[in-house]
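Ticket opened by: R.M.
Priority: normal
Category: complex prediction / small molecule

The reporter submitted a protein together with FE2/S2 (inorganic) cluster and asked that the result be attached to this ticket for the collaborator who will pick it up next week. Submitted input follows.
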Amino acid sequence: MSDRFPMPMPFGWFCIGYSDELAVGDVRNIHYFDRDMVLFRTESGRVGLTHPACPHLGAHLGHGGTVQGESIRCAFHHWQYNTEGVITDIPYASRIPPKWEGKPCLKTYPVCEKNEVIWAWYHPEDAAPDHDVIELDEMRNPAWTERQRFEWTFDSCPQEIAENGVDVAHFKYVHRMEAVPEGETTYEGHIRRSKVSGSRTVTDEAGNAHEVESTVQVVQNGAGQKWVRFTGMMEYVLQPLVTPINDATVEVRFIYLHQPYAAGSFEAMGMEAAIESTNGQRGLEGDIPIWHHKFHLRNPVLCDGDGPIMRFRKYFSQFYFGGPYPGEGGLPSDLEAVAGTSSAAK
Ligand code: FES
Ligand SMILES: [Fe+2]
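Result attached by the on-call engineer:
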């Protein structure tokens, strides 16, 4: 575990790429969750995600491996494995070793494709997924044709980023905007939903003022899937995708989805401004310098103006294997650890 974060990587479904970036026949080396993995797409379009070591004599499947039909073929002796890790061919053997016939011998990881994203299930003990990725209607709606994608990599962990939404006090100081209330929030097992509604006055190009009702709905489904649905002058969906590369570095992707707006229209300009502000200082890029260096304190000193940070942490703690988090395991307060004060002074 990293010195800055007292928790391990959470388990969950995480984005490991976009579906349209993996063509039929592609074999890719990827590194997330502190693991090297091999990602490939078969001729019928299935996605496979495996450990890189060929179970035969250990060649790296991502170096010289090729897709053959529904299998990946190792470059060394041409053994082939399907997406379940079962041997499908050994070109020079009279039969597949009986012990492994029909049984996986290459290690594979759960993977699925939804919302134009390839998702991998990460669990430190390789436990099976306990929930599914949720499909978004807008992603399948043919009228919602516009997508814009952005990407950042920096030192942080999924919880720090997720927690930002309930840290109501930082909006004024980091993002130079009014405090954003948490809104109506519900917690249901691994799903958290929040909704904020409001109205504001917008002036159009002709100088006419309009009162615009808007809502922002946020849904978090496990540690790795989240989306934000905006309605108002423009309607759009943002999928913020946060994937741990290791226990102290993340890759963040933002994908915005919206209906087409006529070039130069008020809505098109509004959309551009919304994206710029969500990515920029009023959004993610305002937070990155803080996240990149901050510590995660298990026992922060909070005040009455802070948001429901500890409630959110209780929710997120369910995504850590081998908890407890936040701990009651007799650990000293991290403030004591940071300040070097003795526990007797408490
Ligand atoms: S090491 Fe892969 S086929 Fe022999
Ligand atoms: Fe923020």
